[in-house]
Specification:
The protein is of the alpha/beta class. The chain has 9 helices and 7 strands. The protein has helices at about 10-20, 25, 30, 50-65, 80-85, 100-110, 140-145, 160, 165-175; strands spanning about 35-40, 40-45, 70-75, 95-100, 135, 150-155, 180-185. The strands form 2 sheets. The chain has a 5-stranded parallel sheet. Strands 1-2 form a two-stranded antiparallel ribbon. β4 (about 95-100), α6 and β5 (about 135) form a beta-alpha-beta unit.
Amino acid sequence: DVLRSPYQTLESYKRVLKGGTSYEAKFPSVFEPDRIFFTNGVLQARRSSQAVFYEMFVHPAMFAHKDPKSVAVLGFGDGAYLREILKHKSVEKVLLLDSEEGWLDFTLSHFPEYDDCNFLDSGVTSCISDPRVTTVFGSFDDFIKKNNDVFDVIILAEPEIVGPSHESLKVLEQVRGSMSDEAVLVANMGFT
């Protein structure tokens, strides 16, 4: 956890922890430390900016489709894509595919706000627990070969799925078979 100077101080955070009637205690999220996670020197997750990233990645694709009922997120990782998808009332089915369960487990325990669906009228508080959601752990290639469903929106969330530029066209052609006639595809192509 990291305090964001000059806006946060250790003293203000201690007042949050103490509770009471101080300004800090009344608005703890303002004075809460930022939580940042790196792997091999690469930023993987950050509490303070995560909402902006996932909102700008998911909502343009969802609004581009006239009535998105089925959504697939390939390489969903931490679950925050799902939180943004479920904000759309038209969604009836969401498929989440990732190659490993460990990252999801890590973020659910250390970044619980990624999975916070308290805004839903259904009373479901955990996005992953929503009955419209199916979670699959396995390889992208196996999914593409075995999948018979079509989706209105497909989100390729991990740059590794698309691969190096010479493989991108092949991957996009494979995904095409899982897209409805008016589907929208959004892909995280990584950083250059």
